Amino acid sequence: MELAELEIFRTVVAEGGVTRAAERLNRVQSNVTTRIKQLEASVGVPLFVRDRKRLVLTASGEALLDYAERILDLVQEAREVVSPQNPRGRLRIGSMESAAASRLPAPLAEFHQRWPEVRLELSTGPTDVLMAGVRTGKLDAALVAGPIEDAALSATPLYKEELMLVTPRSHRRVRSPEDVQLDTLIVFEQGCAYRRHAESWFAGPGRGGVPVRTLELASYHAILACVAAGAGVAVVPRSVIAMQMEPHGFSTHSLGRDGRVTTYLVSRRERSSASLLALRSLLVASL
User: Quick check: is 67 in a domain?
Assistant: First the structure.
């Protein structure tokens, strides 16, 4: 079992097949296929089964992938400790969808230009999923909504967000939850910090309580479109609303102090790298 075989194995899994993996690795397909067969021979079990035109991991392949990820990450970390002045290798960043759309495009473009040897991978998800990814090592760092109460994580405050209540344009002015006339709250899935803020605002002392129904959607574009169509109300960061082209079919209302949230860059305290330090410095400098 060689490091090159593990890297090829990981890339085949990530790309879903040999053809795209070969393109990404700048290798011929026959070489990638041969190295996978050699890896299977060294571990003594098949790692993939073919499902139509896709390669699907076997149970043994799933187990090996976890070890391959950890081995390759440790090798990268060791290289960066030896030569910390040169950001390189893979950097896996997670982000809330709102931050990925409204905050990260310019910094990530600059990062890519300054350190082209770093293979930056960005994935989006709700805060709880991203935090779990950082804790387990599946992510090197993530942009999440505070507060951060995990002492094992390093947290750098970045952006001050203001959450706004969004209603259909025809809705009356909202000063408190009692003013909301619709009974559906449109939200992301469980684990979304902004969803918790919305539910907390509705359920606060002396307030009307959380709307009777929730509608879970997977993007702000869909959420805002449904609000404009009259399906319900939502809580959305001002930075996302500012990206929408006018005229739009919704109105916004302040949540006051309840709507103030800080976005943090979190990572494990015992894990760092030149690439992560470079990204953190770039994000802080862009504030």
Answer: yes
181/172 Cα distance (integer angstroms):
8
Residue 281 lies in a domain: no
Domain closes at, from 30, 62, 82:
82
- pTM for this entry: 0.73
Assign residue 250 a region: left if phi > 0, alpha if psi is -120 to 50, beta otherwise?
beta
CB–CB of 143/156 below 8 Å?
A: no
pLDDT at position 183 over 80: yes
d(CA 210, CA 185): 8
Range of the domain at 250: 160-259
The structure tokens listed for 4 are 């090159």
- Paired with 251 in beta bridges are 167
Mean pLDDT of 251-266: 94
| CB neighbour list of residue 11: distance below 8 Å, 6 or more residues apart | 21, 24, 25
**Cα separation of 141 and 104, whole Å?**
14
How many structural domains does the chain have?
Answer: 2
- In the beta sheet, which residues pair with residue 186? 215, 234
Strand 89-95 relative to strand 118-124, pairing: parallel
pLDDT at 84: 60
Backbone angles phi, psi at 30, to 5 degrees: -65, -35
